[in-house]
Amino acid sequence: MSEQRDRWAELTAGQAGEGYARRFAQLADAGHDVHGEAAFCTAVLNPGARVLDAGCGTGRIAIRLTELGHHCTGVDIDSSMLAVARREAPTQEWHLADLARLDSLGLGSDFDLVLAAGNVVPLLAPGTEATVVRQLVSALRPGGLLVTGMGLDAAHLPLPEPPLTLAEFDHWCTQAGLTLQQRYATWNAEPYEDGCGYAVSVHARPAP
Predict the structure, then answer these.
(1) Would you say residue 2 has pLDDT above 50?
(2) Sheet holding 140-151, edge to edge
(3) Among 17, 32, 41, 64, which residue has the fewest nearby CB atoms (within 10 Å)?
(4) Cα–Cα distance measured from residue 202 to residue 88, given in angstroms and rounded to the nearest whole number
(5) 3-class state of residue 73 by DSSP
(6) Per residue in 56-68, is it b (16+ CB within 10 Å) or e — as a string?
(7) What end-to-end distance do the CA atoms of the chain give, in Å?
(8) Distance separating alpha carbons of residues 62 and 73, to the nearest angstrom
(9) Selected residue with higher pLDDT from 14 and 112
(10) 3-state secondary structure 109-143
(11) Tens digits of per-residue pLDDT, 25-51?
């Protein structure tokens, strides 16, 4: 585990799983599309791709990606969230782990896509962000994609102010050997403009 607690744990005390699942179930029951992230990823993947959902939470996205024909592994540090994922999809691969030490799981480095949605990066333990980016990149095959979604202001974060800037995130990605391919303002691929409160970024690990 990281020496310092992640921001998510500070907010939830590790007890958010059931409430988080109920909130998305209520949204789905009300007719809202709760599968935007999975649809976005599928649009940039070949059929039957190998996907790592880093910070998978209750498994909402990973389960949907599996339903769409991909091979999806989920990792999260919050046991209350993973308990929901394991209940909903007991045969799927779930791991309880700190993303800053992802390599300890021995998952390999041949994922076609690594996903960090749901404000995973802004809610990491302070000071671990660059390390986590390196860990996520190390799981990618050459030519693989890192897809992230993150709030950039208080309106899109469960925090009073953003703990990092998009420029800082891009710098960590560049340091880890990634190239920015696309950036959008939503999971529906609406165009990103400076000042947007949310960013969906697609970075690629160069092929040899």
Answers:
(1) no
(2) 93-96, 71-76, 50-54, 111-116, 140-151, 198-204, 179-184
(3) 32
(4) 28
(5) strand
(6) bbbbbbbbbbbeb
(7) 33
(8) 7
(9) 112
(10) CCEEEEEECCCCCCCCCCCCHHHHHHHHHHCEEEE
(11) 676 667 766 679 999 999 999 999 999
